Model the fold of this input.
Amino acid sequence: MTPPMRTGGRWTAAEVDFVHEFIVCYAAGIVGIPGASLRECLARALRCSSRRIIQYLAKHQLGSLSRLRQLPKAPHEFTAMDHARRAALYRAEHRFHARLHPTIVPTADSFDALESLFLK
Done:
């Protein structure tokens, strides 16, 4: 069962870390959906409304990034730095999910939602 979408509320530290790691990876072409904006990808990864993403980006003077569309790299084009960024993103996602669902023990399968955003 997927968790309900968040439409508001305070941003947790784990959520903010995840957003920052996601933006870095998105800008580098490591994560994303071809043709989808950063806002759409973040909303999908965080399971929250696009409006919440827009408000966060605007508040932190990153509003121009909300419409950014980056074409993801093919996995064979990843550099060692890209793999390190991707690992940092996985760790940030792990902390984010652990904060939301502290009773759930994370497994390798818990990263399926984010993995769907990586070009295979």
